[in-house]
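retry 2 of 3: previous attempt timed out while embedding flavin-adenine dinucleotide. Reduced batch size to 1 and resubmitted. Inputs unchanged:
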Amino acid sequence: MFRKNSFLLFIVCILVLSLLGGCAQQPPEEAPEDQVQEAADGEKSTDVVVVGGGLAGLSAAISAADNGAKVILVEKMPFTGGSSMLSGGGLLGAETHVQEREGIVETKDDLEAYWYEQQAYSSSPEGFPDKEWVRMIIDEAPSTIKFIEDNGVEFRRPSAFYPETKDRLHFPVEGGGAGLTGPLADSAKEKGVEILLQTTATELIEKDGSVVGIKAEDKNGKTIAVNAKAVILANGGFAQNKDLMAHRVPAAQTHYSVSGKGNVGDGYKMAEALGADFYEEDWIIGLRAYAVEGSSELNGLSWTTGLYTTLEGERFVNENYPYSPLYNTLADKGIEEYFLIFDQTMEGAVTPGIEQGVVFKGESIEELAAASGMNPEKLKATIERYNALAKKGKDEDFNKEPELMVPLTEGTLYALKVKTTQMGTMGGVMTTKLMEVLNQSGQTIPGLYAVGEMANRPFYGRVYVSGSALQIAATTGRIAGAAAAK
Ligand SMILES: Cc1cc2nc3c(=O)[nH]c(=O)nc-3n(C[C@H](O)[C@H](O)[C@H](O)COP(=O)(O)OP(=O)(O)OC[C@H]3O[C@@H](n4cnc5c(N)ncnc54)[C@H](O)[C@@H]3O)c2cc1C
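retry 2 succeeded.
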């Protein structure tokens, strides 16, 4: 048993690390001097200004430069990257040249079918996902993978996220998400894009109904205007803004977010002030769970599919659900924290977990309940029922696969407390397929574009598809950059 659990944990750690690939990165606290804006007269002019330097913004900036535009990109943090840099760096795609090179066969139709299989896990709001948008991303993905490669990223052999899925996730050879955004930032600079760090866009400048630039604030609080023929909002979502979360996705407002700290919905405020139309049914890019910041072993452990209970000690889900539907179950049931219960695991994870107060242990169910605060009767009933179903080889309560119903019978019992966790938002402004922002009358707002998490709602019902967010960011950025440069 011990060996089986340890092996499972090892596999899960790899999965988690591939998803949370860049988390160990320590971004700089100050931007290099030459990338903090210096506009003595408080004004700059360019063809295209991009707000936000994640994957969507960098792709947009490069694409606009490739199409002959002079480009300025403003980023509020002392570094480019956003959530994209923190991500595992996997972009989905079918019929890409990288898959062809590696002999992997998956058609666009296969990928589209998988996308909808995933959506079926949770009920979708009326009209979501929008089939045309989903197909657009799938059709454009091969060109986007090529675009990223042409801008300095080498892809390794695509891989599957879950064993049963196809080898469709394109990861850079090194560095997770930072292995995408680092080379793209370098490429943007080589192509003449001026990147201004620690520069926060605060409002759009409008003239005669068209957007003609932005106002921004530098790190000293000085306001500058960047005049431009077009503005591309690539600010990411609002996962780090408690008020916007409470307003737009109340079910998720207290959940822990591992997204970029700059993702506080600035783009929402800027677009709203100009009368942009927003999707109404915002939702969350959910993650499985998170235990402790910076502990890959504990976070790997939190992804194992043992017995999950509420803080009271009651089982509530098929623990082997993919992470996005699992997140939806947690959100629907109002669960902010829960326990993963196990009887044997890697000592390496348990010891620091006990020290950090997130792993509890007991030599009996009663002792474990006393240590963790669970209700002893409920926990006893839960474990006995779980063990009985495991013995029977059929999970009559939540339909988990029989081979994953491992009874809890081996000596000391442990409970790891984990947080319901999200990594971004689904929402944003309505746009055309060229990513031009629409107003409430359904007309384009001339000069204004939105990309990435700022405009990702039509692609999903309520279930996130692994590798889709980065693909959406890069593809919508690439499209908007080219359109804005014209
Ligand atoms: C831990 C983690 C793992 C993930 N793993 C994957 C994965 O493997 N595959 C996948 O497809 N997706 C993954 N995702 C989701 C994906 O990374 C994001 O949805 C995607 O990167 C969003 O890209 P973006 O460019 O729209 O936003 P971001 O990358 O977040 O960039 C937005 C940028 O805008 C900046 N900004 C915000 N406001 C302003 C302002 N007013 N002025 C100037 N700058 C501003 C922010 O600081 C930020 O740098 C993951 C997310 C996280 C957090």
